[in-house]
Design goal:
Blueprint (H helix, E strand, L loop, with lengths): L6 H4 L6 H11 L7 E4 L2 H8 L4 E5 L3 H10 L5 E2 L2 H8 L1
Amino acid sequence: MYVKFRWCVTEVTKPHELMYRTALEELNLSPSEVLFIDDSIKNCDGAEKLGIRSFVLCRDWKPYFYNKITCKKHPVVRNLYDVIKSLY
C-alpha cells in the first residue's frame, strides 16, 4: 500500500515527529509494519527515530554513489525493485 500524507494534515513537515506519528495513527499501523522511502537522509533519520525502517531513494547515479558511500544509517536504493531485493 502506498500512502502520501500532506503537511496540511499536521501543519508540520518531515522530519518532524508529528508527521510520522499522524501517518501511523491514520493507518492504524505500528512502526515495525511500515517502510519509509524518501530521497532525503534527514527525513529517513526522522522516521528511524520512531522505529520505522527507512530507505534513501536516489534515482540519479551521482547522488546514488555518493549516498551509498557516505550514508551508513539507511540502505540506499535506486528503485523499488532494490527495496524488495533488500528485504529478502
